[in-house]
Amino acid sequence: MAVNNHPFSRGICHIRSANPKDKPILDPRYLSHPLDLEVLARQTQYIETIVETKPFASLLKSSGRLPGGKEATSLDGAEEIVKERLFSTFHPTGTCAMMTEEIGGVVDTRLRVYGTKNLRVVDASMFPMETLGNIQATIYVVAERAADLIKEDWKRDV
């Protein structure tokens, strides 16, 4: 299984209506950045190289690794395998990414939602890229920093 820990593809998340019970419009747009597909395809090819070497070759059935007799010998073949077998892992992030508004960001460097004064995002959705390791510890750090930012802004506005 190949894993892309830092995908460049950007999905969308929009509210459907003013009704909070309406489900949001979500489209992860997996593989919308061409580099994501190439990274996963090349990893798939490399995994095939690994499992064809000793001692793996003698332990694994050659017919049991890839579905439908597909082969990852060519980049095109590996890309087809990736497209058929892709799924998300870990904790997807970035639905309210901290980036400039011009490139699709939702929050600024003080975690404020663009176009608002007092609405902040303090969870994993503000990460523009997936973090390495367990995400919970990183969220704790962001929450601590958010508390400092809120106190700073409150003191400045008083």
Automatic annotation (TrEMBL):
Pfam families: GMC_oxred_C
InterPro entries: FAD/NAD-bd_sf, GMC_OxRdtase, GMC_OxRtase_C
Record domain Glucose-methanol-choline oxidoreductase C-terminal: where: 7-143
One example GO MF annotation: oxidoreductase activity, acting on CH-OH group of donors
Similarity comment: family membership: Belongs to the GMC oxidoreductase family.
Name by which UniProt lists this protein: Glucose-methanol-choline oxidoreductase C-terminal domain-containing protein
Species annotation: Ascochyta lentis
